[in-house]
Amino acid sequence: MLKVFKVILVFLILFSLTNCNREKREISRLKFPQRIVSLAPGFTETLIDLGLKDKIVGVTTSCDYLKEMKDVEKIGFYMKPSLEKIVSLSPDLVLATDYVGQQQTIKALKKLGIKVEVFEEKGIEELFLAVKRIGEICGVQRRADLLMQKMQKKIKETKTKCSSLSRPRVYVEVGYNPLFTCGKGSFIDELIEIAGGENIAHGIDKPYPRVSAEFIISKDPEVIILPYMGRGYGKETVKRRNGWQRISAILNDRIYDDIGPHRITILVPNLILKGLPELARRIHPEIFNQE
Fold first, then answer.
1. Lowest-confidence region among 12-16, 19-23, 33-37, 220-224
2. What is the 3-state secondary structure (H, E, C) of the chain?
């Protein structure tokens, strides 16, 4: 009888411990967001990279290029997301930027008691901070740490390979008619530096300044990158621009319009993991095309 009692007692203890652990896991799961709305493609990509795709319930139309978000509810434009649409999705977390067009929506969401995390979309340092913070609030710190380690490794490897190389002058065109490029304070400027180039607009103290054709011609870029260019704005069109024929990049056929519109223009982990190698291959093909 005593043996039977002991067996029953052990069973009850194990059953209690199992239930207790299950309850702890459930409480732990519930304290992390389960329904996330992303107001920028950078956050959406980061969430996907951290294995949180299934928790995304709303994104802006700027995420249309992501096949993983094809069937996810759209909540309007990046510049002016729809408050009503966001609220209708009952999110327990909204990831937003400090862009002026989102500020009114952010204030309204906070008044309604919806948790909003606001991030700066500036440079590579801010990218690391965003990955770390999203990992913390979503309970995937380990994945975030591993992702950041990969990014740091890619930056270090690229810098090492470029350390003894000359630095070609680089012009990245992020807008045409009027002309816009990337200046000091932009993550593209940082990316050019890491990839072993010299940004011709680095001396302009604005992230994305408007520039003149005369300015570009006078700087004589040796490499031209066209990340946003689509039909009618590719390399052949650039070659025909008035007065540009004497630019070194055109004389030596070093105009690149094949990186794609999202590789180096969105502040996401893949900016480092995929965009940086693509840019480095265009700036230093003698080194990076051998990989």
1. 19-23
2. CHHHHHHHHHHHHHHHHHHHHHHHHHHHHHCCCCCEEECCHHHHHHHHHCCCHHHEEEECHHHCCCHHHCCCEECECCCCECHHHHHHCCCCEEEEECCHHHHHHHHHHHHCCCCEEEECCCCHHHHHHHHHHHHHHCCCHHHHHHHHHHHHHHHHHHHHHHCCCCCCEEEEEEECCCEEECCCCCHHHHHHHHCCCEECCCCCCCCCCEECHHHHHHHCCCEEECCCCCCCCCHHHHHCCCCHHHCHHHHCCCEECCCCCCCCCCCCHHHHHHHHHHHHHHHCHHHHCCC
36-119: CATH topology is Rossmann fold (3.40.50)
Task: Answer whether 92's CB lies under 8 Å from 115's CB.
Answer: yes
Give the confidence band of 25 by pLDDT, cuts at 50, 70, 90: very low
Could you give the CA distance from residue 114 to residue 120 in angstroms, rounded to a whole number? 20
What are the structural domain ranges in the chain? 36-119, 166-288
**Are 173 and 226 a contacting pair, CB within 8 Å?**
yes
Confidence of residue 13 (pLDDT cuts 50, 70, 90): low
Given a cut of 80, whether residue 22 has pLDDT beyond it is no
Residue 37 forms beta bridges with which residues? 58, 94
Strand partners, 230: none
CA 187 – CA 97 distance, rounded (Å): 15
Average pLDDT, the chain: 90
* Topology match between the domains 36-119 and 166-288: yes
Q: Considering the entire predicted model, what is its pTM?
A: 0.85
**pLDDT, tens digit, 9 for 90 and up, residues 190-213:** 999 999 999 999 999 999 999 999
In the CATH scheme, what is the code of domain 166-288? 3.40.50.1980
